[in-house]
Design a protein that fits this description.
homodimer, 298 residues, alpha/beta, Aminopeptidase, N-terminal domain of TfIIb, 2 domains, nine-stranded mixed β-sheet, three-stranded antiparallel β-sheet, 7 helices, 26% helix, globular
Chain lengths: 298, 298
Amino acid sequence: MKLEKVTIVGGTHGNEYTGPYLLKFLKEKNLLTKFSTFETNLFLANPKAYEKNVRFLDVDLNRSFSQEDLSNSSLGHYEADRAKVIHQLLGPKSNPKTDFILDVHTTTANMGVTLIIVDNNPFNLEMAAFVKSKIPGVSILYNPMAEQAGREGLPFLNSLTEHSIGIELGPIANGIVRQDVLLQACDSTLACLEYIEMVNNETEIPVGNEIEVFEKVKPVSFPLDSHGNIAAIVHEYLQDRDFKPLHKNHPVFLKLDGEVVLNQEEETYFPIFINEAATYYLSIAYSLTRKRLLKIRK
Amino acid sequence: MKLEKVTIVGGTHGNEYTGPYLLKFLKEKNLLTKFSTFETNLFLANPKAYEKNVRFLDVDLNRSFSQEDLSNSSLGHYEADRAKVIHQLLGPKSNPKTDFILDVHTTTANMGVTLIIVDNNPFNLEMAAFVKSKIPGVSILYNPMAEQAGREGLPFLNSLTEHSIGIELGPIANGIVRQDVLLQACDSTLACLEYIEMVNNETEIPVGNEIEVFEKVKPVSFPLDSHGNIAAIVHEYLQDRDFKPLHKNHPVFLKLDGEVVLNQEEETYFPIFINEAATYYLSIAYSLTRKRLLKIRK
């Protein structure tokens, strides 16, 4: 297998500035010239949302890439049309014009460097294991949605290609760049590209056949008042404890009248995206995952 | 002197969620019933920007309260009109319907709890000194703009009254609430109200006659490229060092081509609002202040 065309995407969400700045940084520091086996395309996905410093104008671009939506010309939202333009440029899903997509995101949650995998093929899993072996502390988040929906059903930009990864970095506020986070983005991106170079050169990859992932289970809503408004905040005990075990009866919310809400889940899950700004409008406070070992090569 | 009507304002900037949640928290936890000498009005200043999770829709509401703009009916921006409605409700500047305004803001910069004073009358300064004596680590920022423009020239919401304070809390991302920051907002607000209660009861205030403030000097721009776009990020050395001395030749920016930019100021200033999201659109990276001792009672 040889990957010849690689696409690095920033600004899929317009207020997550690290991605767009990473694209400039990679280019202006000439960091890509050391890779000789593939071409790299640097792509700003939602320039209008980036210019306006908003996640999206009409709908979430990173939920606009299901085959059904891509085939529906009557949606008319800015991002629904933008997705079709990107699909034209990088797709189609069945035979894409790029061999690999890396999509860079940030979060207000304390998730450090998290690699997100939406297609659990051996390439993606091995890349994640390789990056984790190079950069200590990296977490791997696996979204099993593709197991039901298939890649054509997935709404994510990087579901355009079979070989893809998402990088999620945090905590960082929207609308700013921090040097520490930019350098983490840069290091993890370069590690992904190094992996591709090794695959292209048929170099043996020094990782085992098992990889620990956090598999997404379900989102958790904020407590709501009778008007459907958020009526609580994330409890300080839970704040910043992304990827840490959450046991039954541990505090998860503080209601605005002072009442503490305890976790009622019987299973000990691992919460992620705790107090993420982007999901307040959906009243989602965090998501639950469980740890799972995946075989890289079946 | 007796203050009978007190207004606590949140959501002057719609994406700074701590203020609006503080208003609900104060009400639902019944935290205001212990004050018997004044009435408290809880006021959400920009509900539309809060609903949309943006700082403002058209223009910055907290720059819309100069007497000149308040008298200009032809501006037509949403916030220009909203300011006139608030002016009608709480003003006019010469004879306001409220005796005191406390305006709650947040920042992505590492500014802890900062009290902002725009009118250096003895009441405001003594309140700041009292809050600082109760809450260790509080910084006091003094904006000397009123010394030139007079209160009628000031564009800030809390320039509607002579007696006023701003509370700035950070670091926190926009669009979220954190329990630690909410409790800081609550504690500092209650300390302000306690001061008013003491003044109303003619209780002696246990503070001296001098107060250390950081006086705003000037903003500092990001380095720009030939198209006027931001071409650097805040250097990791400077990041999070709000209110710390910044010496000549210390690193302040990292250009995207890797060049480090050094501070050229001869005077050792104290930077604030370092890497604040709200000023990227103005290409402002941070502001400089100098330390100054003010006499509370002249």
